[in-house]
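User: Amine oxidase. Structure?
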Amino acid sequence: MANTAEYSSKTTRDGFLSYSDGSIENGLTTLTAVEIQKLDNTKEYDVIIIGAGFAGLIAARELGLRGRKVLLIEAKDRIGGRTFTAQTNDHNFEIGGTWIHWSQPHVWSEITRYGLSLKESKGVAADRMSILLENGTKLKEISMLDSLVALANAMEKYSDVDDVQGRTVIPFPHTPFVANELVQKYDQLSMQDRFDQIIDSLNITDEIKDMLLALLSMNMQGDIAEGGFIDHLRWWALGDYNMIRMFDKLSRYKIKEGTSTLAQAILNDCKNVTLLLSTSVLSVDHTNTNSSIIRIQTGDLLLARSVLVTVPLNALQNLKFFPPLGIKKQESIANGQCPGGRKFWVKLEKPIGPWFGMAPYPNPITMAYTDDEEGYIIVGFGPDELLDIQNINIVEKELNKFLPNVKVTYVLGHDWRNDPFILSTWSWYKPGQMCSSLKALQIAEPPIFFASGDIADGWRGFIDGAIESGLTNARYIQQYLNKRFPSH
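Assistant: Predicted structure:
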């Protein structure tokens, strides 16, 4: 069993907390039950897993429960990858991946397994809405209910490439290449290309147009000219080809007990698993197909019969492989994916009740909404690197565009884009990338296997996708080991 305590808290090096007096605390308190474990570098493991996000944790659990000796190596000082729950002033803040839904099959299975529950982000269903028009210079307060039908109709027209809401392109969202020719066709378009195709036929007000652009930019967290349209169609299909259902799945419900509680529960279920934290991997040598050599930052060499790499796509460039990986995989890693933008949380001095705000790119905040019952807590998102989320004065100034005269008590978050072990927020591919890269990134090069939320078939970029990818590759690795080393 992985060496764990029951439950405790510690300060991770990740994240920051910025106060109204200008002071900044680096590092956030988060739930963790992980104790330091001693490395036995004389042992040959059945599997070494690089990365203890949800893909790595699930694979470790599944392989360990099947009697495999597993070493789980994590560069950070905590588990969870691009998710962790920070505990500040008696409130839980989800710094990375947050929202889930009961229609996401893999994560919902884990929620059921561990007896966890859901909590609603209240602002998503708020009727009071602020929208910034005319390049962020004009504030208009509207009723969300009055605009929702028009926005949903505009989104349907944007998504409807085949008169059946994209169903011929992605009929089975968890099997993305069923209609391969159509997928290749629409994979070539950027989100901006598609917008330009249909803007003259939308017949909408400037207000609804800006709301549509804000929502599209928010989804890929940047300039929609850089984002692939096929990823929008994938989200649309996963959202049942309906804007309201898609929105509920993306941003309304989260784990009441916290994502770190789920990660910890999975770790506590592990058997035959050794966990190393604060240990980065430099290289993987698989010259000998019977045994891979892993070099870690200390210079130690570790041996394994197989290796599962769960490093985020944009950070894979920092890991060396000997011999080099296949040329298509190398090209996919070099191209990377969209890096995403900024996510931040603020605590207001006074509550504002349920509220929702939107602004089109390139406003520094494209979407923000209250998360708690009273309206003290706001979660916000900004495209690219247009917002310095560590500067509380700048964050407050940008929020004042939506909510004049609100005062921010503190702001917290983490710079995922520039985190050297992550280099991205959630997954969004560039035009042409799904067809050119997804299959190449998924293909195993035994004894090396690859898994992460960035290369899942279904909910790619979500906790569900990471779990899917981890489960899939745990099965592949077990089959490989059974065949290669039958005497085990």
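The first strand starts at residue 4 and ends at 19. The chain has two domains: 4-118+256-338+421-484, 122-251+341-413.
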